[in-house]
Design goal:
The complex is a heterotrimer of chains A (176), B (465) and C (305). Chain A is mainly α and 176 residues long. Chain A has one domain. Chain A contains six helices and no strands. The longest helix of chain A is centred in the middle third of the chain and has 36 residues. Chain A is elongated, with a radius of gyration of 20 Å. Chain B is built from 21 helices and no strands. The relative contact order of chain B is 0.14. Chain C is α/β, with parallel strands linked by helices and 305 residues long. Classes of the chains: A mainly alpha (176), B mainly alpha (465), C alpha/beta (305). The complex binds sodium ion (2 copies). One sodium ion (NA) binds next to loops of chain B. Chain B: It is a multi-pass membrane protein. Chain B: It comes from Alginatibacterium sediminis. Chain B: Keywords: Cell inner membrane, Cell membrane, Membrane, Transmembrane, Transmembrane helix, Transport. Chain B: It is found in: Cell inner membrane.
Amino acid sequence: MINKLHKLEENLISLILVSMTLLVFWEVIMRFVFNAGIHWSQEVTLYLSAWLVLLGASWGIREGAHIGVDAFVKLLPDPLHRLLSLVAIFLCLVYCTLFLYGSWVYLAKMKSVGIEMEDLPVQKWQAMSVLIIGFALLSLRFFELAWRVYTGKQLGFHLADEAKESMHLIDDTKQD
Amino acid sequence: MTTLTLFALLFVCMFIGMPIAIALGFSSMMTILLFSSDSLASISLKLFEAASEHYTLLAIPFFILSSSFLSTGGVAKRLINFAINSVGHIRGGLAMASVLACMLFAAVSGSSPATVAAIGSIVIAGMVRSGYPESFAAGVIANAGTLGILIPPSIVMLVYAAATEVSASRMFMAGFIPGIMMGSILMIAIYVVARIKGLPSQPFPGLGAWGLSLAKASGGLMLIILVLGSIYGGVASPTEAASVAAIYAYLVAVWGYRDIGPLKDTPWRKPGQSLVSSVFSNIISLPYVFVASFTNKEVRLVVKDAAKVSIMLLFIIANAMLFAHVLTTERIPHMIAESIVSHGLEAWAFLIVVNILLLIAGNFMEPTAILLIMAPILFPIATQLGIDPIHLGIIMVVNMEIGMLTPPVGLNLFVTAGITGRSIGWVIKACLPWLSLLLIFLMMITYIPQISLFLPEFFDRMNGY
Amino acid sequence: APIEIKFSHVVAENTPKGQMALKFKELVEQRLAGKVEVKVYPNSQLYGDGKELEAMLLGDVELIAPSLSKFKKYTNQLQIFDLPFLFKDIESVDRFQQSDAGQGLLKSLEPKGLVGLGYLHNGLKQLSANAPLRTPDDASGKKFRIMSSDVLSAQFEAVEAVPLKKPFSEVFTLLQTKAIDGQENTWSNIYSKKFFEVQPYITESNHGVLDYMVVTSADFWNNLPDDIRMELSKALSEAVTLGNQIAAEKASADRQLIIDSNRSELITLTDAERQQWVDAMKPVWSQFEDQIGTDLIQAAVASNQ
Ligand code: NA
Ligand code: NA
């Protein structure tokens, strides 16, 4: 289930990044070649970037993309390291919960007032719903992570320096 | 009390290993809840604003996507080969060439992290391959990347010009000589280190091999011309040029060199095919390539990698803006600045204080936020003391450069960690020796106003303004 | 504890809006000492101009002064201020804003939970470009940066120009490299945003108005004790008067600074040239008549006397 969700998220995030790039590129072509503008492109690109970040934050937890300082916890014996990680995950969950609550109030207000986006006939609360979706998914990821740390499968946040896969770039060029 | 809570929470959270982004956001949120009447809803609003209202930040994902295509395809390898063939025979030559590449890129981009992202992901790997220590390579690039805001165009200078009503084009001109100077200082330092440490050099491969590597690298080299050309040729803004770079890099890697993607191992010209027919069939293959890329494993992996680094950076930036928001609403930088400047200092002492103040602020806040808060406070006092506003502006920009490299909030540190896959601590250590050069440079800029003022005054005289 | 009023705005303290906010703070703290406390946050320190209205709806800020075009999703009627060549001069704008129709517009936001308290001038808009604009034909095919507004979009399309929406952070570079040909703005904005350094020609067209509305949230305003609300209203209108006076002075001072800079040539239109622009752009009125209301447009025309 979670793996399928992860794959779905990954595809969606890649699609958002590609759409943003194409949209801005297309705007340049339209302006330079066809002497025309796309009046909604700026707003859509910016909203897409919000979706990229807020949706991507949770996906990044699983991917070990988020960087942190682990110099200190690494010096500790494993059980203590895991305990501190659990504390940190708990605080992350507090962060998510507060954001979920705040976003709910915010979007409910926007829904009741009924304001549309500047250039598109879409309700703002809908365009900003990623606040709730993103933080809900982020919470889910932290529960999963807490379980992995609790059961000893993982020591901490799987921070970027442990994720050696991004090193493939250097390994690739070293080979030949 | 508020300040203490904010910073204590931040450091505790970071030390127990929380991701930096969430440590910044969590400590800000708690401080707001404890000490201010702002609602949780407004914090959500602020985060969404941070993620969706900064158009210039889009240059970061675009340039990362572009470099991602350049480095996973063979484009980077060809560029690196060319660079090694050109300057590899000089001790430290490749590192110097990398600094030059950062300076060139800074001349098209207004942002420092974008400079590191665009150049670093290619040249760090190249330097490591030619035998440089990775920390040396990362440190050089993270530092040279800060030139993005000193060499015009510069987003930070535009903000300063708007905040103080000085001329933006004079600010741009004022950044030119300091930018070249800083680049040269870095290159000289590299040369000295290379001599002492005996960094690698390779024999010159001969003109023929050099020419061949130039031809092979031309697809990648064109990118520089394309980005520079589209900005100065009036086609695109820097952010837009970043998207053009991404599309071009995709085309070069997937359609041009064909190291990855649906056309991998498909030759440009099949045996026996006529030139005209091969050109024609390659052009009509473009729509197919584009569609097939969506399901191609390698292309998707490149996009995924770019998304990973971009999200990590943008999520930190969004939370860092929340952190800056707390500092601002609590008027912490204001109070410190006002209490210091009320002491009635001499010009030279005032400048020392300004530097210290900005360096501290640079630890925690982003350049734009710092400038918007500090410039209106410092500007009138500087004018009274007879300090040229343009000179003050350049001092501020150089301080902001240093801020990019100082923890806990240092964008260049994050980008470098992202592209090398190393920890923040490792990157900080790698940057430290070069950072001291930047500090010496700051002293020169502060006390020799002519470095900044020569060019704008020269042009003003020439134009008779 | 005293009632706290957060006044958030997105410009510098030395602008007419910034000065107005500080004057309001001064007056309130003089007259309602101990009862009301005003905190002014300039330079988008609290919220940027895309989010300040939403923050107000959430009750996190009590006073803001966005430009009138920011209200287009809140009420159609306020688009009237974007109509080209509607007002003869800034005095006409004043008369309209003080008239019953103008004051009625302040109330048009109430269904959305906002209360308009008054108008503040930025000034009349001028056209700038990288080539001289004397007649509408000169603008044909040229690309102009606009703020997000259907009316402004229609205004440029009426002279066969291309309206483009771009964020401020990009505009300077786009103008400098000539990726965009021109833009419209008030004298004070053209000066403070440094557009005059990269736009060699400025046509003194006075073709439109760029004003602000001071708004508060209905929740906050209606729950204030009557005497305090009265006193705040009075202080605000005095502060606005001062702000408008500064705006007028600044407009002519900045205009002069731009001329003195020698970086931009000022183009003044002859009556015949100006009439061509009016003829070309006026059809925009009828395009938006249904949304804005014919009566309102007539009231605005009447304020030209
Ligand atoms: Na630059
Ligand atoms: Na920093």
